[in-house]
Design a protein that fits this description.
By secondary structure, the chain is α/β, with parallel strands linked by helices. Helix content is 32%, strand content 20%. The protein has 14 helices and 24 strands. The strands form five sheets. Strands 1, 2, 3, 9, 10, 11, 12, 19, 21 and 22 form a ten-stranded mixed beta sheet that branches. It has a five-stranded mixed beta sheet with strand order 20-18-13-23-24, covered by helices on one side. The two termini are 39 Å apart.
Length: 555
């Protein structure tokens, strides 16, 4: 492995992997070792959502369990929109995927020498493997170590993909345009893999890290790739809700181990909304909290409910949830002394770039994996702990990737890009970044309605058109290679990255809003107060191709 300074970035590689979470790291490791691979990390390594995953990774490995039960649980959670073949592939490959992770050094918890497994919401068996309550970190740390050992992988850190290089004659992806330091450069590649994670930062309340700005979906859409089911966003019911604290996720596993969800009066209200109570599917529990606060709180926007861990043995809490104990204590919550205040927050995007079994998008040479992709395994609502599994199982398909003999090369001419006037758009960008997440939370959050959606679409479109027509966005919107650019100052380069992220957020906001307005029913993570029932006529996928929105029943 090698890392690249600002001046020695390659002009061409065989494969570019954009994103360094579990999906991107494992994809890079699974690629044939004869390929020269570039792994692009938006920030430093270990900053994505995978690192934050607490609960675990699902696999039917217990003798009392089976892949068939895992399949049925996944299909039930997906509310009629899963691709059964993809789900079968996921569940049947799961034990092999776990074995591969163990082989490379991932230390899952064990009980009496056997892999320990816990129960999570909507699972019919205890099948969630874990490493304390930092499973994502345990997996990402090992994958990062293995990537750094590989001589064919070049890590391009603190680099941001501005646009995809599309051959207009063949509609083939030929590489990317990358911002790194104060340079914008084209890098040619025979294949590009988007593994940029989700888009939770589009909402005011999210468990996602700051880097989750929907970059991959926005890049792919602007390049002409087909997107699917973007209205389905999962809101995790239990994120820490303490003034001044980030919306730190309190794992599903806490409820799986026996914690009770209670209101201000200590009442277990979730059974009013579903017979499984706090172990109902995530969307059901999130709406239960939302509706209960609407009925009982004087200010539902700031109100919260509580997770009471007293039913769990103290030693069990200390063993299973050391990170949650530490994080809560940091923000003044001693979970041994009082219940944890929680409220729902945007957590996982079920929709994404439509891909086939081998992760190929509708654009030749362009692949997607992980939360960025729509593989068909999650449907309208992801089953808990299937996300890390999806990353590992589908990344394994890159072992069979075939590419052209020679990657394309870009023009290395260098032009000075004067960004001194870009500061004029700074105030507009700051305004958008402040107001957009609040707008999306109110209009496309847990409960949606046509009037709010239509109003938000109009507002987002005005913002988007205004920003796209400023000089700062021209390097972002270019799809065909030209000269590399030397940006006039570090401040201008910083402003360019912020503008690109903001444009991505605006694009995915518009797409989410339009998809949510289009689907006139409630299903899974999508709930319309004006269409509160699930409609069999809408057991179809929402498809986006450019500005065209259609429905499809093809899996």
């Amino acid at each position: 492995m090698s890392t690249s300074s600002d001046r020695d970035f390659p002009s061409q590689l065989d494969v570019l992997v954009v994103g360094a979470g579990a999906a991107g790291l494992y994809a890079a490791l699974c690629l044939p070792e004869q390929f020269r691979v570039g792994l692009i990390s938006k920030d430093t390594l270990r900053t994505g959502s995978s690192q934050w995953a607490q609960g675990g990774i699902a696999a039917a490995m217990d003798p009392q369990d089976s892949p068939l039960l895992h399949i049925e649980d996944t299909l039930a959670a997906g509310a009629g929109l899963c691709d059964r073949a993809a789900v079968e592939f996921l569940a049947r490959q799961a034990p092999e995927a776990i074995a591969a992770l163990v082989d490379i050094g991932v230390a899952f918890d064990r009980h009496d020498g056997q892999l320990a497994m816990t129960l999570e919401a909507a699972h019919s068996r205890s099948r969630v493997l874990h490493s304390k309550d930092t499973t994502g970190r345990a997996i990402v740390d090992i994958l990062t170590t293995r990537v750094l050992e590989r001589k064919n992988i070049q890590v391009l850190s603190a680099a941001f993909a501005l646009s995809l290089w599309i051959d207009e004659a063949t509609n083939r992806c030929r590489g990317i345009r990358l911002l790194a330091g104060d340079r914008v450069r084209w890098i040619g590649a025979s294949a590009v893999i988007l593994a940029t994670g989700g888009g939770g930062q589009v909402f005011a309340k999210t468990t996602n890290p700051a880097v989750s700005t929907g970059d991959g979906v926005a890049l792919a859409w602007r390049a002409g790739a087909t997107l699917r089911d973007l209205e389905f966003f999962q809101f995790h019911p239990t994120a820490l809700s303490e003034p001044g604290a980030p919306h730190f996720l309190i794992s599903e596993a806490v409820r799986g181990e026996g914690a009770h969800l209670v209101d201000e009066n200590g009442r277990r209200f979730a059974f009013d909304y579903h017979p499984s109570g706090e172990l109902a599917p995530r969307d059901v529990v999130s709406r239960a909290i939302f509706k209960h606060l609407q009925k009982t709180a004087s200010d539902p926007a700031t109100a919260r409910v509580y997770l009471d861990l007293r039913p769990i043995n103290l030693d069990r809490i200390r063993h299973r949830f050391p990170n949650i104990i530490k994080k809560c204590k940091k923000w003044g919550v001693d979970l041994f002394d009082r219940p944890i205040p929680v409220a729902p927050a945007a957590h996982y995007w079920m929709g994404g770039i439509a891909v086939d079994r081998r992760n190929l998008t509708s654009v030749s040479g362009l692949y997607a994996i992980g939360e960025t992709a729509s593989t068909g395994v999650h449907g309208a609502n992801r089953l808990a702990s299937n996300s890390l599994l999806e990353c590992v199982v589908f990344a394994g398909e890159f072992r069979y990737l075939e590419i052209e003999a020679n990657a394309p090369s870009s023009n290395n001419e260098l032009t000075i890009l004067d960004g001194k006037n870009w500061s004029e758009t700074a105030a507009e960008i700051d305004k958008i970044r402040q107001e957009l997440p609040a707008l999306m939370w109110q209009s496309a959050g847990i409960c949606r309605h046509s009037e709010l959606l239509e109003s938000a679409i109009d507002r987002v479109r005005v913002w988007r058109d205004r920003l796209a027509n400023t000089p700062i966005c021209q390097p972002i919107l270019q799809r065909s290679p030209g000269e590399d650019l030397q940006i006039s100052s570090p401040e201008a380069a910083k402003q360019l990255k912020l503008a690109a992220e903001t444009l991505n957020l605006l694009d995915i906001s518009d797409l989410i809003l339009k998809s949510a307005l289009f689907r006139q029913e409630s299903r899974g993570g999508h709930y319309r107060t004006d269409f509160p029932n699930t409609d069999p006529e809408w057991q179809v996928h929402t498809i986006i191709e450019g500005n065209r929105l259609t429905m499809s029943n093809e899996q």
